[in-house]
Amino acid sequence: MYHTGLKAFLRDGKSALAKGPVAMIFAEDLVEVDTTVRHHQMAGFAQVLLFAPDELTLPEDLSDTVHRIRYDLSDGNALTEAVNAVIEAAEGIWLYYCYNAEYLFHPFCETRNVREMLAFHAEERRNSVLTYVVDLYADDLGRFPDAVSLENAWLDKSGYYALGRPDEKGHPKERQLDFFGGLRWRFEEHIPKHRRKIDRISLFRAKKGLRLRPDHTFNDEEYNTYSCPWHHNITTAIVSFRTAKALKSNAGSTFDIHTFRWHNSTEFDWSSQQLLDLGLMEPGQWF
Fold first, then answer.
1. How high is the pLDDT of residue 229?
2. Could you please report the per-residue DSSP string of the chain?
3. How high is the pLDDT of residue 284?
């Protein structure tokens, strides 16, 4: 179903928010939008909302299975405003958001879908899931100048770290950390300081008054925690070509980067087990 804008969707397509989880995919460009949609449909989301410009052409089978919303992401706060508008209309529903060329993985996702994972997580009295955004990049920028290739995708196997997240007084917040690594760390001279974090609360249960902030955290501090006070909880990973695309499309960085591969690069095999083995997500008590 096609909607002329976000207000039109909230007026005419609100039935899509009756049952979750609902995925919101934001198309910044036209790269790998169809594979992003298919991946999340196969992951088990009840509905997929695609925020995209009219220039995008989707295969007919996808056009019939998503709610496509005409949307302009050129405003820096456009994603935040859209997510918050959907939160207001979807109280109690699990929501998820990502950009195109980003793919969600959770522990054991090959045999258990996202609905099962969230049902378990909710039983743990958790309303949010910490997600690490793991950078992917093509191995050969000569063959793939936009740094995107699903068949030749690589990632960093080390170089990730966390720092305490300070509150207004400079004290570390309880059960909150800022996570860094990947291309945003290796090429930090090209990345603004406020965009270097790789953590995101991408899966969360909507509630009255909840607001997403521009730094991918929420106004409810418990939503920003990596686990409950008693034990470790599930964390997930979004493997993402977004940073690699940006570094190769930006005139200020593209000529300085001839390859993203280094001695700690490894080929991505598109499995949750590889991400678990690398410590890039946590199964918690999930079994």
1. 86
2. -EESSHHHHHHH-GGGGSSS-EEEEE-SSSTTHHHHHHHHHHHT-SEEEEEE-TT----HHHHTTSEEEE----STTHHHHHHHHHHHH-TT-EEEEEETTEEEE-TTTTTS-HHHHHHHHHHTT--EEEEEEEE-EES-TTT-TTS--STTEEEESS--EEEEEE-TTSPEEEEEEEEE-THHHHTGGGS-GGG---EEEEEEE--TT--B-TTS-BSSGGGG-SS-SSS----EEEEE-HHHHHHHH-TTTGGG-S----TTEEE--S-HHHHHHTTSS--TT--
3. 86
